[in-house]
Amino acid sequence: MLMQTPINFKRKIIASAIASYALAGFTGAAMAQDNGLEEVIVTGIKGSLQRAMDIKREAVGVVDAISAEDIGKMPDSNLAESLQRIPGVSIDRVNGEGSKVTVRGLGSGYNLVTLNSRQMPASSFGTSRSFEFSNLASEGISGVEVFKSGRADVQSGGMGALINILTPRPLSSPGLKAVVSAKAVSDQSSVIEEGITPEISGLFSNTFADDKIGVSLTGSYQDRNSGNRQSQVSGWFTHAADKPIGDWDDLPSSYTDVPVNRSRSLPSEIMYRVNEVNRKRTNAQLTIQYQPVERLTVTADYLYVNQEREENNFGTGLWFTRPNDGSLEIEWSNTNPAYPLSYTEVAKTKELNYVINHNQAKSDLKSAGLNVKWEATDNLVVEFDAHNSDSYSGPNGKWGGNNQFHFGIIDDYKVSVDFTKKYPLMQFEYADGRDDVVPDVSRMQLTNNIFRVQDQDSGVDEYQLKGTYTFDDSFIDNIKAGVGTNEITNKYYFLGLQQQNQGTWGGVQGKNGIGDIPQYYWIVDRLTNYFDNKEFSSPYFQNTIVRANWDELLDVSARLYGSDTGPCPKAYCTTRDNTRANDGLNDDLTIETTDFAYLQFGFKPEIAGMPANVAVGVRYETTDVESSQYVSAYLPLANWEGGNEYNLTPAGSEYGFSTGSYSKTLPNLDFDIALTDDIKARASVSKTIARADFADLRGGFNWNAAPRSSEVTGSSGNPNLKPMESTNFDISAEWYYSDSSYVSLGYFKKDVADFIGGSAPEEGSTADLPGGISEPFRTPFGGARWNEALAALGGTATPPQISEWIRANRPEWVNEKGHIPAVAGDPILNYEISRPINNEDASIDGIEIAWQHTFGESGFGFQANATLVDSDTKFDNASTGAQFAVYGLSDSANFIGFYDKDGLQARLAYNWRDDFLNGYAGYTEAYGQLDASVSYDITDNLTVSMEALNLTDEDTRTYVRDTGMTSSYIETGARYNVGVRYSF
User: Fold this and answer.
1) What's residue 562's pLDDT?
2) Domain with CATH 2.170.130.10 in the chain
3) pLDDT value at residue 21
């Protein structure tokens, strides 16, 4: 086995060198021919950079990669944090840890993740197709390839990029190999659950029966405490300049200092939270290979990932009421929209709100695969691959997955907020002049509780048959062809149950009303015991907070206010009972089946004596979509209550069902030429797609139960949505001026069609509704009975007059409720449906620059890269109307300096991402993070290491429309690891 020294020269025959190189799983790297020569193998940081560079150099199309050594030595806790070092790749962070990946400005939902070229299911809460990289530890992964241009022989669905994760194969590196490593982790972002937590990983690989059987097993376990502290404004209400004031979410009608000719934004709620998270993550993979004859290899593998997450947070805040009594004082910014620099109001009989959240969730990813590779002849390789993968995310316990209690004291407060800093500072006084709001817990009352369950189960069944034929002495170098099918099943469920104080926002009124919960349950605390920001120690800051133990508060609240008793009392426990939902319900199933075939030709011409590569391919796919949604059902005959009022009669619930289909042809043309031995030019044109989120594909119709006289309105998903399609252009030049040094410069452009947005309402008859309903809705309006009444009234009459005549003269037409129901012969109601459609196009372009350099044999080197990206869509921050812009678009840069010599390896890595639009009118502020790692080989087998992430303790911040309109300010902290690794 290769020793883990920084520059470790081992002389082996070429066959052994190729086998060691193949352990990383990369198929695109150039390998020496078996001519009896010996090869120098370089390991350590320099070796991993050289392998990644070779993949980039030899790839067809635009491909970047990181190798096993690179992942193992970076101070990263998961693959997302490793991938951000690649040009054009940036990440979203959750709780200080990498979560989802954006490539060339296109977010996680536009990228496809595969494992050993097998499509992985979605693995995050909600209805997106995003893959949650925090589920995967870096250990046990041999490499990652990022395909930035389309190729016929890789799966579709990655409009931004296809990210292929590779795992080791035991027969690629015969013999016994074992590695055990352990880390002690101190996460400074946790301010309550402080201490050291463990990370343990191991790899075992061996071959038997003259290297015809191979077995490898990798595993890792991580127990991590983390946290954050947040100052947040939960929402900003923005109104156009010409909109009259007076609405509940706007300035009161008595307010006079209204900004002129500018939109205006007002905060909805301010909140301060302390959040603590415990995450336990287990990864394991078993691979078994059998090679009964030299040309036939059978590989079976199984991946298991489990993550359990418990989150507890507590906070305090206030809803702004914008009173109409003249107490509202605002100093406006000079921006458009205008927002408060300072804001003061008197809130009468208002709750100073405290909140406790308790969330328990788990996720499981299971993937079983079988691969048979047959080298039928010296020229023909045939491969069959099948896998079944399933990802589940859901609650971890009977209390649902997202639960909270709100409690507080009702009083008259004067609140002032300073919005001039990067975080809002709130000051409280009692309206009667008391200047320190120290809560009287004897007056504390429960005001609201919310229990929610949410889960997503996404599965992939995929079968592929592919082959490669390599020609001898032909103008065609190779032909690649394949066929296959995959079926994606996505189930999403959400049920919310909210008890608003047993019918009032004024507080739960139990047997004794205020003070029902004993005082000793409440803990009076200070926010400055948790926040690092020194300005929160200001005497003008509302510092006092009340919190409680979740389990104790749940127990006493359920006994006092629960509508029943037992292990899961109603209103304090969410179960999968659709009839109980009052705070939202989704119960959806989508099945998406794709059949595909591809053909790609490879050529290796010489142009003016310069060797070149050309790949021309096409991929053809057909996709069928079936989607259902749990919706309210109604009888087909509407009721006329009288006057202009109509209603549909509820008939329980049903699963509405719709279907759709589409086909796509995806060509690609890749060209590269070696202008010299060291300089390569590259160009690529391709088409790639990204499929719609599952939420947009929902079947069924949600109807407005109170239709108009001749028309019923509603909303629906759209299983007939086409995928978004990108035409990609790439051109680049690469100079490989030494074994592990290069410079590259590239330009890319993506012309994207069919982005998904809202439609203008579709209209028609419910008898011809696309997707269908069991029976069309009918209305009494304009029917035979209507016309009889109208004739009796002389031919002209209003609807109220007609209904009065029917009640007086035709009582047999009126039911026991006093309504006039439609009958079978009455006119059919028309419909007006809003649904998502393909309606937007956008163009994205950018420049990628990368420079990798090693300073000879000194051991020093660096990597530097930057991506500058732009789009022809811009978000108008002053507009309050619907508009389209590409989310996630931002410039990014990385710099990594390293030293690798005499057993010592050290890295200093800086990652930066500029401001970007993260949603409608919402932005994430520019963020840079400095990480470091150092390791030393005590012996050829024993290595010790230290790692530090977020060394400078950077904070993150989001805002709305203008940098002064804070949405959230989040403190996290640095993370330190000390580790040991032993190789057998």
Assistant:
1) 67
2) 45-180
3) 33
Fold for 45-180, please state it: Ferric Hydroxamate Uptake Protein; Chain A, domain 1 (2.170.130)
26: helix, strand or coil: coil
Single-letter code of the amino acid located at 102 = T
What is the Cα–Cα distance from 406 to 539, expressed in whole angstroms? Answer: 26
pLDDT at 228: 92
As to burial, measured by CB atoms within 10 angstroms (0-12 exposed, 13-18 middle, 19+ buried), residue 858 is exposed
Rg, the chain, Cα only: 32
Torsion of CA 326, 329, 333, 335, to 10 degrees: -20
* Positions in the chain whose pLDDT score sits under 50: 1-41, 70-75, 502-512
DSSP calls for 199-210: EEEEEEEEEETT
Beta carbons of 976 and 945 less than 8 angstroms apart = no
**3-state SS assignment for residue 650:** strand
- What is the predicted pLDDT for the residue at 564? 56
Q: Residue 529 has which token pair? A: 């015991």
Give the Cα separation of 639 and 527 in Å (integer): 56
E strand residue ranges, 872-926: 892-901, 904-913, 916-919, 922-924
Q: Report which residue type is found at 36.
A: G
Per-residue model confidence (pLDDT) at position 939: 94
Rounded Cα distance, 154 and 147, in Å: 9
For 208, half-sphere exposure in the C-beta direction (CA atoms, 13 angstrom radius) is 8
Cross-strand bridge partners of residue 726: 688, 752
The alpha-helical segments, DSSP class H, found in 94-226 are none
Closest CA to 678 of 190, 116, 53: 53
Please state whether beta strands 380-395 and 340-375 pair in parallel, antiparallel, or not at all (unpaired): antiparallel
CB atoms within 10 A of CB 315: 22
DSSP alpha helices (H): ranges in 754-833?
784-792, 799-809
Residue 911 burial class via C-beta count within 10 angstroms: exposed 0-12, middle 13-18, buried 19 and up: buried
> What confidence score (pLDDT) does residue 567 get?
57
- Residue 253 CA, distance from chain mean position: 41
Alpha-carbon distance of 900 to 933, in angstroms, equals: 12
Q: How many C-beta atoms surround the C-beta of residue 815 within 10 A?
A: 10
Q: Which H/E stretch holds residue 272?
A: strand 269-293
Residues 6+ positions from 99 with CB-CB distance below 8 Å: 80, 91, 92, 93, 132, 133, 134
Contacts of 318 (CB under 8 A, 6+ apart): 269, 270, 347, 350, 351, 352, 353, 413, 415, 426
**Structure pTM?**
0.86
